[in-house]
């Protein structure tokens, strides 16, 4: 397959959860594309719907309490319409998932080799020798220096960084076309984070997969991703290449997120002072009309917002939600204190 080819197309995806007998949207009308050889980062504060998007694509929701609409087109089929058996065949084989907490994602009672082999058992007809060879190859690929030893160990015998490497080995065992990594480095210290990101980039180069990288860490995005989608309150509010979004952020939310990145030891000047208070509303309190970010920037006049905010193209491939970005400015502390 060619580079940059569209692997997964998310069209108008909404997912709502039933709470006290009523359904509430956790994500609304998501449109995104994952390309071969590309890393798409999904960023936003806690509660904005990043994990819900991942679990929706993976078909991991309880159908009795979850309502999903839209399409997730992959390999000529809509993942959201597949039955359990077909989805089980895809999960692990064509789409791999890396979870945030490697300890809870691993079985404490099973040796590492057996846990990596599980996917191979389910999805392939490899002999035991072939499986052993593949496990060794995978452990080396994720940077484990003594694969024979690690293969025989149990999860509690490994460090956090080693466990995350094992989780990645499990996710890529069957050479999936798509890897969804949900906060893969959050539980790790900074040095190990950098190593894990190197492993992910290496895998992308070697396996030619498309990666969805979910994170709230903009440093991770800047270092790793090709494209970025910024989510706020269940919606994508800005998307573009990493360069477009980082060098020329347009949505007030993106701009506030980027300003909150520590800028080394630069002195903060008057112009850098700004205030965006508040937090992501819970899904029961999510406004259903208007700009969901408007309450957090009350100094922007109501008429600057759209009634039904849509995405506007500000450069080829760079889109921003709602016209309010045209009139947005940061409010200085001086103004705030008036
Ligand atoms: N099964 C569920 N039932 C009810 N509400 C849910 C469920 N799963 C998630 N939510 C709600 O949906 C919203 C989005 O949650 P989600 O976990 O997708 O956000 P997130 O951006 O991944 O946050 P975090 O970074 O903390 O994981 C939140 O308000 C959350 O409380």
Outline the structure in words.
The chain has helices at residues 50-58, 84-90, 102-105, 112-123, 128-141, 147-152, 160-172, 190-207, 218-224, 242-247, 252-259, 333-337; strands at residues 6-19, 22-35, 39-43, 66-74, 77-78, 95-98, 178-182, 210-215, 227-232, 235-241, 311-315, 318-321. Strand 7, helix 8 (190-207) and strand 8 form a beta-alpha-beta unit. Helix 4 packs parallel to helix 7 and helix 5 packs across helix 7. The protein is globular and about 70 Å long. With 338 residues, it is of the alpha/beta class. The strands form two sheets. Strands 6-7-8-3-9-10-12-11 form an eight-stranded mixed β-sheet, sandwiched between helices. It has a four-stranded antiparallel β-sheet with strand order 2-1-4-5. Helix content is 32%, strand content 24%. Adenosine-5'-triphosphate is lined by residues 17, 19, 26, 44, 46-52, 216, 282-283. Keywords: ATP-binding, Cell membrane, Membrane, Nucleotide-binding, Transport.
Compact overview of the structure:
32% of the residues lie in helices and 24% in strands.
Low-confidence sequence ranges:
none
Return the domain count. 2
Judged by helices, strands and strand pairing, the structural class is alpha/beta
Mean pLDDT: 90
* Share of residues in strands: 15-25%
Radius of gyration: 21 Å
Measured distance between first and last alpha carbons: 59 Å
| Anisotropy-based shape | globular
CATH superfamily of the largest domain: P-loop containing nucleotide triphosphate hydrolases
The CATH architecture of the largest domain can be named as 3-Layer(aba) Sandwich
Please bin the fraction of helical residues: 25-40%
Strand order within the widest beta sheet: 6-7-8-3-9-10-12-11
Bound molecules: adenosine-5'-triphosphate
Order of helices and strands: EEEHEEHEHHHHHEHEHEEHHEEH
Q: Can you count the beta strands?
A: 12
Largest sheet: 8 strands, mixed
CATH C-level label of the largest domain: Alpha Beta
CATH topology of the largest domain, what is it called?
Rossmann fold
Helix segment count? Answer: 12
